[in-house]
Known about the structure:
Blueprint: H1 7-27, H2 34-41, H3 45-51, H4 55-80, H5 86-103, H6 106-109, H7 118-136, H8 142-165, H9 168-190
Helix pairs in contact: 1-2, 2-3, 4-7, 5-9, 7-8, 8-9
Amino acid sequence: RRVPQQSRGRRRVARLLHAADCVIGEAGYESATMCAIAERAGSSVGSLYQFFPNKEAVVDALRAQYAEEYAKFWRHLTPQAPALTSEQLAARLIQFPLKFAAHHPAFLALLDIETAHSPRRRQMIHDRIAAVLRARQPKLQEVRAQRIAAVVHQMLKALLTLYARTGPRERAAVVGEFKTVLSSYLEARLSE
């Protein structure tokens, strides 16, 4: 995709990505169209295609943006991890993606969409979770930390998937159940 060099172009790309976030969040990935994204951004579809050759490129850019924001979370959580109980750590691991999803409508809609970069992104997430785990439990070997990180990642994905499919009245109960499960799992694994 074309990368804007001037601030005006960067603002236009930011508007297009915000529009894509909204459209995909409302309509779902399959139903979202490039025309709808351009219209929501108040731009021409030609302008959208200047920066993104197809919907997959838009999704890749959204996910890259999400990854940058998530990186800030991990940078803050890692040094705090040693002082957290397993329950507190579980609560932080659960609350951040829920808050993130509230601010990024397409986040939940894109959970199940695989892209060419998925294995690399998945490993990056595992690495960050493993770093938090090792900060919390320095004696934890890297191989074991990676295994636990993969399980934690799957639990968080399951939470987000169920959360997206659950009505507003039931969501707090679902989150509570996952906090219990994740907290118990972390307590068992990090106290060994």
